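User: Please fill in residues for this 236-position structure.
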């Protein structure tokens, strides 16, 4: 029979895997682990959002997994199974996060997800007792193209003298990272609905420079190509 003492011992023996801790000093992947002991996932959404936005300054891909306690129905043995990106991952493919709005939408959708249906058991002899922690795996994308789909500050959006070019004529956000080429097309005489001219500029640039996405280190070549004066600035 499952007792509180047995359950507590299982949690104590695996406390290092369960306790809340962040590992954010990596160059490839950061992990954010949160204990769910005595609380629901919905109670920590704001904390998770705050922690990730405080540490991640570029776009990234995110996946997640659960740490769970299971019981063997034949022996009554309790066992902790830690979360990982192996068979225990919740999503088949990581989700791309471009801004805080994407992250919040991702985190809030987990609240509506029936986790018990997704968690795999070693075999039919094991039944789920509780979900004890959740771990987020953030895969870093350090070389982010200019035009990463970020939310522009209000002083740019509300400036009547600027074209922010964040949405198309159907009011849908651009997600193709070609915003810089839209400005090149616009200053080359194209209208605000400049998708064809934008792609022509992009393909011509890639062909001439033998390059793909534009990152900050390529700005000098883009200045020569576009014959425009460009300033790269970061809003903080």
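Assistant: Residues filled in for all 236 positions:
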């Amino acid at each position: 029979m499952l007792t509180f003492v047995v359950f507590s011992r299982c949690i104590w023996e695996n406390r290092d895997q369960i306790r809340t801790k962040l590992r954010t000093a990596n160059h490839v992947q950061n992990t954010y682990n949160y204990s769910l002991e005595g609380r629901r996932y919905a109670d920590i959404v704001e904390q998770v959002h705050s922690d990730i936005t405080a540490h991640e300054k570029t776009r990234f891909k995110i996946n997640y997994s659960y740490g769970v306690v299971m019981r063997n129905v034949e022996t009554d043995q309790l066992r902790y199974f830690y979360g990982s990106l192996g068979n225990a991952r919740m999503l088949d493919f990581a989700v791309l996060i471009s801004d805080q709005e994407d992250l919040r939408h991702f985190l809030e959708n987990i609240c509506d997800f029936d986790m018990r249906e997704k968690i795999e058991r070693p075999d039919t002899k094991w039944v789920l007792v509780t979900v004890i922690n959740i771990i987020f795996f953030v895969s870093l994308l350090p070389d982010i193209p200019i035009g990463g789909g970020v939310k522009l500050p209000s002083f740019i959006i509300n400036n009547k003298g600027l074209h922010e070019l964040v949405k198309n004529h159907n009011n849908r956000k651009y997600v193709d990272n070609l915003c810089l080429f839209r400005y090149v097309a616009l200053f080359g005489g194209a209208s605000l609905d400049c998708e064809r001219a934008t792609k022509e500029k992009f393909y011509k640039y890639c062909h001439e420079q033998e390059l793909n996405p534009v990152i900050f280190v390529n700005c000098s070549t883009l200045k020569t190509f576009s014959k425009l004066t460009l300033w790269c600035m970061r809003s903080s």
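For context: DSSP finds nine helices and six strands in the chain.
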